[in-house]
Structure formats: C-alpha cells, structure tokens
C-alpha cells in the first residue's frame, strides 16, 4: 500500500441519522452490526429503506439472533432483487436458490478459504450475498471482509492511471471443476468465463472499486503473460491490507449481507473438527462497468 486508504463511503459524506435501526460500524473502512431489525418478519418500507442505506454506506451488514426459516431467508433476499442459483454448489432440497455452506469433521475443505468475490466469472456477477449461519463453532470460523473502495483509493495515482481502461479475465473452470464431487454434485459441461473492468464503478454509490480477485481472475487482457502475472500478484497482495478489513465472529443464527460489487471476503477454516452450517442466498447483479 503506497498511502493510507481514504475515508470510506460512510465517512466522506454527511451522515443522516437513522430513525428505525441502530448501526454500529466495525471499522472506518467497512462493516457494521445492525440492531433493531427482525429478519423473521416482513420489514416495513421505512425499515427496509434504512437497511438499504446502511448497506450502501457500510458495504457489509451483520445481524445477530435471526432464527430465519428458509422461506424467510429467501423472502429477505428477494426484497433486493431476483435471486441467483450458484453454478456449482449444492443447494437445500426444494430450494435451488438456497446454497448450502457447511464444514465438519468429515470435510476436506471449507467454502471461501481464499480472498474472493462471489462468482465473478459470471457475465453479471451477483449484487450481494446473504449468509445465515445456523450452527457455528464455539471458537474460530471468523470471516474477514475487505473494502475494494479502500483498496482502489490507496493505489498511487500512477497505478490508477495504469489500470484505468484495463480489463481482466474471470474464469470459473479451474475453481468449480470437481469442487463438489465429494458431495455428489455433478459437473456442468462448461463453467462461466467473463471479462470485466479492473476499475469497477458502483452503480449506486458511484465510487470506484478494485475488481480483481485471486479466486477467479486469471489474466489481464492485452498484457504479456509475465506482465499480467506480476501486476495481478501485486494487486492480490495489495487488496489484503488490514486497513481495508473488518473481521466478523459468528454466533448461531447470525447473518452477514455483503455487497459483492465492492468487497471481498475470506472464510477462516480454523475450527476443524467442529461444525459450521448455514445457507446462502445470492441476489442477481449487473454487468460491471
């Protein structure tokens, strides 16, 4: 990182007071715990509007003690838009939009063990993901989130100029092929591959976010392979800076809702052989610009 991250969205505009919810920011860059919201009910328009604003301002929201049913989980996601079906992961019986997120003593891996943006290989990557953890280990199993606004803002002016106008390939083949075979999920004939701008402008806030990730991004279009590899290696390391991050400690029935357009996350699998189980709902997004 060449300079300190600039003030995040929540701090660089005058804050309006919240009338219906309590918002407790976790760090200056990203994340807030929300109180005064019951996700097992149909939120009023006034409460929902404040949740939407908190989402734009804080990038990832956390709600504790939310014993949602699958139908309530799906209903909350649908308030934000149409729901997506994951291209590879297993889903709950009868609910293809409800992705299973689980690891226990029998698992050889856990979901999201590296910094990534969900399904960025899609032509229209998800707008956001809503993860409801029903069972969590007593110790461990935290998830780290990072602001890609802060990652972009902290780049030097020269690096920003170098990246402006460049695009990168996001490929799902090497990520998903055989990934869920041990759970009885058959591979698709082909997984998505897309080209997206490295500097992504958020459709709601208008801010620029760094949009490459080590999970899916394989090369930068128009650069020689060695130059592309070197630049991506630098960006992957840069975006992991602790100043861009928050860390969430899960408790049973906690919910995280992150903006996939301007964040990355990393799930820490340090709790084996304990069990972590939940479901994720994904809201469809649009083509990055």
UniProtKB/TrEMBL annotation:
One of its GO terms (molecular function) is metal ion binding. This is Taurine dioxygenase. It comes from Brevundimonas variabilis. Its EC number is 1.14.11.17. Keywords: Dioxygenase, Iron, Metal-binding, Oxidoreductase. It is an enzyme of class 1 (oxidoreductase). Residues 23-282 form the TauD/TfdA-like domain. Gene3D superfamilies: Clavaminate synthase-like.
